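Q: I have 207 residues here and want to know how they pack in 3D. Can you give me a structure?
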Amino acid sequence: FLQSKLLRVIQDKMVQPLGAGTEIKTDFRIIAATNKNLEEETKKGNFRSDLYYRLNVVNINIPPLRERKEDVEELAKHFLKKYAVLMDKNISQISFAVMEAFKTYPFKGNVRELENLIERAVAMEKTNRLLPSSFPAHFFGNYENFWDNQIPDLEKPVDLEKIVENIEKKYIMTALEKTGGNQSKSAKLLGLSGRVFRYKMEKYNIR
């Protein structure tokens, strides 16, 4: 019944406001979204074919978030800003370790799952940036498993020295994230002397 009423409105561009006795002419555009295959739903009889073709004038297919990881960072920043304002919290950054974890997370719940993760993290976070500790265990896992995902498949020659440097840099940055930027604690966490830790920070231009 609702589908037939919507079809009539689209076709005639006429609506009758609630409580009114007459119809009025309208001028509108409809932007509709769905996570179902409407072509299949029309074949099953769950969705009117005439309404489907009326709505399907310009079809834009948006791949799931797991297939467009390049969008994750901007979306995460958007949701961080949104919930930081809503919860009146001074959080303006997302840690390097969390951003790296986003690259391998499957996001089975698509954009809504990312939004829920950020909302939860903002609520839990006590610093001015989102750290791994504010995310559930199933998202971040442990550091060893996380870095295991970065190992190449060796189907072609690799620059091992560069790979080792990248991993070392990531561990240093992650240690700094976990300790709130405290170099002494970060060095201890990585089993390095303060002198060696500072040398490596300068080597990788980490500020």
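Q: Anything worth noting?
A: The first strand starts at residue 14 and ends at 15. The chain has a mean pLDDT of 85.
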